[in-house]
Amino acid sequence: MELNELEIDYGATLIGPVSAELPAGGVTVLRGGSGSGKTSLCLAMTGFLTPTGGGISGDEGVLVPQNPREWLNPRHTVDEVIDRTARILGHSLGADERAGVLARALLGPELLQHRCGELSGGQAARVCLARALASGIDTIVCDEPTAALDASNAARFARLIRTLAEAGHTIVWATHDLPLVMATNADCGFVSLDHRQSELRQPDHRQPDHRWPDHRPPELWQ
């Protein structure tokens, strides 16, 4: 995926222009101060938000949201979530394949029959990641996926992201926890945002971060 002078205009607030090449098999971190637009950029890269300028080359990514419980129907089983995602995107997964997707997200097959409302925070985050893997899309865009997790689950998720990058996935990770990212992904690239311009550059740990509200995709939630 490549971002080409991408802009998102909220009237008084302009995000971009953002230009960056996001390499396959690598982790690219989105960072910026409050209101810099990390979540909006994640939504644009995954088709939930239309940029007002520039464009994206390559296929859209699939989103792993920062508040996974709000993106999972509590009445649905994990099996239904994985199966529905695959079918919406034009392919089907057998029972063994759905269990395999969960295994890649470090979850056991017994979780398939659990309802999403029964999941812990760490489980919900990894189910959203499993859903992304079930989509068959190579670029995985993570919007602060560890924000609501305790230290142990956050570290486990970070190691999992590293494994997926090593398997060839393009990983985009918006986060406020740079030490966590650097501990498991020391060779990652950075896209630094502010209200006027964005560029791919090396990390600067001094700049604070923020969180934006979620946008639930109704066709997957219902």
UniProtKB/TrEMBL annotation:
- Keyword entries, A-Z: ATP-binding, Nucleotide-binding, Transport
**Keyword Metal-binding belongs to the record:** no
Tell me which Gene Ontology terms the entry assigns under biological process: transmembrane transport
Which region ranges are annotated with the description Disordered?
Answer: 199-222
Coiled coil location? none
Q: According to the lineage, what is the superkingdom?
A: Bacteria
Domain ABC transporter spans what residues?
Answer: 1-220
Q: Which GO terms describe its molecular function?
A: ATP binding; ATP hydrolysis activity
Q: Does the keyword Cytoplasm apply?
A: no
Q: Please name the SMART domains in this protein's record.
A: AAA
* InterPro entries the record matches: AAA+_ATPase (IPR003593), ABC_transp_ATP-bind (IPR050319), ABC_transporter-like_ATP-bd (IPR003439), ABC_transporter-like_CS (IPR017871), P-loop_NTPase (IPR027417)
Task: List, alphabetically, the Pfam families matched.
Answer: ABC_tran
Q: Which family does it belong to?
A: Belongs to the ABC transporter superfamily.
Q: What is this protein called?
A: ABC-type glutathione transport system ATPase component
Q: What is the species listed in this Swiss-Prot or TrEMBL entry?
A: Brevibacterium marinum
Query: Mind giving the lineage of the organism this protein is from?
Result: Bacteria, Bacillati, Actinomycetota, Actinomycetes, Micrococcales
